[in-house]
Amino acid sequence: MLKKEIESKKQIKFDKSFIIPEDYEYNNVLIKNISDLKVKGELNYQSSIKGLQVQAIILATIEAIDARDGSIIVLENQEFEWDDEYFFENVNDDQHNLILGEEFSILDYAIDQILLNIPMNLTNNYGKISLVGKNFKLMTEEEYEQEQENEIDPRWDKLNDFKFKK
């Protein structure tokens, strides 16, 4: 979408499906393919700050390499919330998203949002902990705190060595 079109319309609602070219560069070594990409939301241009606010939902299927074992995993119907601001003019800090050029590509910026929301070490079994070792147990934070409260300070054990006369 061209900058002039965005500036003239001010508010643009969209509901688009995209076909991503097979040779698309994702700039993430773990991502093999993104398919079934659907983006639904709206663009709001704010002329006072020359900024573009995007509020949308991104749905996609992601084919990636598991960071632990190198197998291919497919994450179907992943949903990402896209709520961000972009600026056509240079802003003198690193906290603003700049639109390079005169065109805002919903496809490219939606893919960027997906990539920003994917963990660096993407794995299919991220919630599983490998239980290896002896004399330990997996505890919740509350169980750990309760155990710490009930633990006796080892300095008190020296009192057992004293024999008191009656």
From TrEMBL:
It comes from the Bacteria. This is DUF177 domain-containing protein. It comes from Spiroplasma helicoides. The lineage of its organism: Bacteria, Bacillati, Mycoplasmatota, Mollicutes, Entomoplasmatales.
